[in-house]
Amino acid sequence: MPTYNGTAADDILNAGTQTTNDILNGYAGNDTLHAYAGDDVLDGGDGNDTLYGGSGNDTYIISSGFDLIQDSGGLSDTLDLQGYSLGSISFRRENNYDLVLDISGSTNVTIRNHFLSTGAGRIEYFILGGSTVPVENLTVTTYGDANANIIYGDANTATITDLMYGGAGNDQLYGYTGNDTLYGQDGNDSLYGGDGNDNLYGGNGNDGITGGAGDDQILGEDGDDNLSGEDGNDFINGGLGDDVLTGGNGDDDLRGSSGQDIIRGGAGADLLYGDGNSDVLEGGDGNDQLFGDAGDDTLDGGNGTDIINGGSGNDFIRISIGNDSIDGGSGIDTIEFLNINYGGTFDLSTGIINLDNGDVQTFTNIENISGSYLNDDIIGNNGFNIIHGNSGRDDLYGRGGDDWLYGGDGHDRLYGELGVDDLYGGEGNDQLYGGDGNDRLTGENGTDYLFGDAGNDLLYGQNGDDFIWGGDDNDRAEGGYGNDTIDGENGNDVLIGEQGSDVIYGSAGRDFLYGDDTARDPNYAGAGNDTLYGGDGNDLLYGGAGNDILIGGANSDRFEGGAGRDTFVYDNISDTYSTYDFVDDFEIGPAGDIIDFSGLTNFGIGDNFLDYVSLELTNNHTRVLVDADGTGGTYGATIAVQLQGTSGLLDIVTMYNDGQIIL
């Protein structure tokens, strides 16, 4: 084995192009040693030496000084540091590719291109304290500075441990293989753990952290961070700020900590904690456990048999396929079924959900339900419930309590039952039943059927040709747009047709009927002392039995007062100027019907009533003419009303004296 020896001076030893296994001893001085092919031994001795190993499995011996090693190949190169222990040496990465060993204040070794992707400059073994340590067992530290650093770990050695500090600035840290620890520190950093079980710390700033393969621990710390575990069973904690946590594949433990966080478990049996504030938790596939904790949280277990606990706050829980167990916790909580393609029966009173696919889910502490896109039966409890049917033909039951029921799309049936309920039909031809209590029913779009039932109800047909029944007690019904049919039924009701050609029945009680339209509205008061308002349009008003008040409004109206002493009211000159009304059953005499012009004329004390009102015969009828100011001025005497079949039976003086004309 050829040997090359130096002196105490600064030597250059060159083994030439020999392929033998050479020994090069530099001794003292700042020496330069060149080996070539073969398994060579290079000992620099004291001083600041530079050692070139060449190809082959070389051994480098270091004593003291600031030495540089550049290896050119070999699969089993060794650095001999027998005088030092592993704990006394700090390994760090420098200039991305160099490995630096900080041994003492007077001894330092730099291995040039140790981290080169080809592996040619790598040292595979280290002799420390009499033991041979593979490079895989080392922990290599890399420090960034105040700039925006890009720091790479070892991509060639499967198990080497990288320790990286980004420093100030917006840094990028790549761990690659091995069980690495990365600290982003200050700045908005990007950390990539790569393979291995890594520990990743974002530090201050809005960081993006990806664990990669392996069971990683990821802590976002301060700032609004985006944290992703990817493969492996990961632990992720968002820390301060509004963070996004994604577990990926594996059984992950995800904790939002403070801030309004978005937490996604991904595949696997995941554990999700929202902690404080209002968070979004999505379990994904697998049998997950979700805990919203404090705040108004949104929780979605995803597919699988999940355990969901909303915690305190008003939580929103989305249901997916699987036999889930749900606890809304304290607060006003809602469950929603729009994620699934099955209808079902959802019963707040029993806490049981039966989906049409056979899944059975249980829940407690849930106050409100939002159904699926299909046909649902949703049943409330004795508390205050908000129930949405959404799409499909839904049956909604409020049960006890003051409930809000929304049918949504589809032809729905809504039952308020007990309590003061609000029912909204939505799209489709819906049926709304108020039940007991003073309810409000709104049909919205479609041909709706509204039943007030017991209580003083408010009923609004809105759009569509609706049918409205007030039921018992004193109701108010408004038809809205469309040709509506309104029946007040029992009680003293206020019935308003609004737009369209409406049919209005007062039925029993003292009712107020308003046509209020530009079309023809027939209003039927029924028994009782009713008030009928025709509104705009050519209206038909039927008082029925009782002393009724009939107000036609604009355009030509037709009245039938029915039995009782009825009053026909005119309070706007425009009601008489261009058109006039017809009364089919005007009763004559002191107890007969009344025509009231008091809201129209300027009649005062000392005026002659004959200046304001007169009669005109035509065929078999009598027309009553009125002059609003009694002077024959702007309007003059115009026809107000024609009393059918009364020709020759009426006298204006007698009518005035009998109180049948009021000015």
Q: Which class of secondary structure composition applies to the elements?
A: mainly beta
Extract low-pLDDT stretches: none
- The end-to-end distance, rounded to whole angstroms, is 141 Å
Count of distinct strands: 68
**Strand fraction band?**
35-45%
Q: DSSP helix count?
A: 2
Helix content: under 10%
Task: Describe the model.
Helix content is 2%, strand content 36%. The radius of gyration is 46 Å and the shape is rod-shaped. With 663 residues, the protein is mostly beta strands. Among the domains are: 3-137, no CATH class; 384-447, no CATH class; 609-662, no CATH class. Strand 13 and strand 14 (131-134) form a beta hairpin.
Furnish the topology, listing elements before pairings.
Elements: E1 3-5, E2 12-14, E3 23-25, E4 32-34, E5 41-43, E6 50-54, E7 59-61, E8 65-71, E9 78-81, E10 90-94, E11 98-104, E12 107-111, E13 125-128, E14 131-134, E15 139-143, E16 150-152, E17 161-165, E18 172-174, E19 181-183, E20 190-192, E21 199-201, E22 208-210, E23 217-219, E24 226-228, E25 235-237, E26 244-246, E27 253-255, E28 262-264, E29 271-273, E30 280-282, E31 289-291, E32 298-300, E33 307-309, E34 316-318, E35 325-327, E36 334-336, E37 344-347, E38 352-355, E39 360-364, E40 368-370, E41 376-379, E42 386-388, E43 395-397, E44 404-406, E45 413-415, E46 422-424, E47 431-433, E48 440-442, E49 449-451, E50 458-460, E51 467-469, E52 476-478, E53 485-487, E54 494-496, E55 503-505, E56 512-514, E57 522-524, E58 531-533, E59 540-542, E60 549-551, E61 558-560, E62 567-569, H1 574-577, E63 581-583, E64 594-596, E65 613-618, E66 621-626, E67 638-643, H2 652-657, E68 661-662
